[in-house]
């Protein structure tokens, strides 16, 4: 598969944001065209990461792959978006940490330990994920909204009972 022309000239240690149809997949650039990323154990390809299995998977495998193979027909960009909040580790340290994980099995949780958490841990020594934060916020909002509608429904049905 040939990668779609995308902006950016990744350097070793850079965070790579890959735009999938329904979400962003994150990887860390190692150099020479290779990235490191996590993929669910039950799936063979990072391009299939969008399937429902990845949401429910509890284990992932850390893989070193060619950026162009992982990107496929999607687009990507270099996105070191947390550099203003966290100080990146020295590049040699980032790469050393990344190489330690290659071919290892790691725990995976779409909200608490996802692909973005993994690569930010390598680059900054901190697990960070805006995707997970947005998802948790959306879940919290939906829960509050559902609770509010349930309460309003209960109050409405009680008020109707009093009138009869």
From TrEMBL:
Protein name: LRAT domain-containing protein
Xref: PROSITE patterns: LRAT
Keyword annotations from UniProtKB, A to Z: Hydrolase, Lipid metabolism, Membrane, Transferase, Transmembrane, Transmembrane helix
Matching InterPro entries: H-rev107_PLA/AT (IPR051496), LRAT_dom (IPR007053)
Record lineage: Eukaryota, Metazoa, Chordata, Craniata, Vertebrata
UniProt key word Acyltransferase: no
Protein family per UniProt: Belongs to the H-rev107 family.
One Pfam family recorded for the sequence: LRAT
Matches recorded under PANTHER family: HRAS-LIKE SUPPRESSOR - RELATED, PHOSPHOLIPASE A AND ACYLTRANSFERASE 1
Domain of life where this protein originates: Eukaryota
GO biological process, any: N-acylphosphatidylethanolamine metabolic process
Domain named LRAT: residues: 15-131
GO cellular component, one term: cytoplasm
Chain ranges passing through the membrane: 135-156
GO molecular function, one term: phospholipase A1 activity
């Amino acid at each position: 598969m040939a990668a779609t022309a995308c902006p950016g000239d990744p350097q070793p240690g850079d965070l790579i944001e890959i735009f999938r149809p329904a979400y962003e997949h994150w990887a860390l650039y190692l150099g020479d065209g290779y990235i490191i990323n996590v993929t669910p154990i039950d799936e063979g390809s990072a391009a299939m990461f969008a399937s429902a299995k990845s949401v429910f998977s509890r284990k992932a495998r850390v893989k070193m792959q060619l950026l162009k193979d992982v990107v496929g027909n999607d687009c990507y960009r270099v996105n070191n978006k947390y550099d203003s909040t966290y100080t990146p580790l020295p590049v040699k340290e980032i790469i050393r940490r990344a190489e330690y994980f290659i071919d290892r099995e790691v725990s995976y949780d779409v909200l608490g330990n996802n692909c973005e958490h993994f690569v930010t841990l390598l680059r900054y020594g901190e697990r960070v994920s805006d995707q997970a934060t947005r998802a948790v916020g959306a879940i919290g909002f939906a829960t509050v909204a559902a609770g509010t509608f349930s309460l309003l429904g209960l109050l409405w049905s009680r008020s109707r009972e009093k009138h009869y």
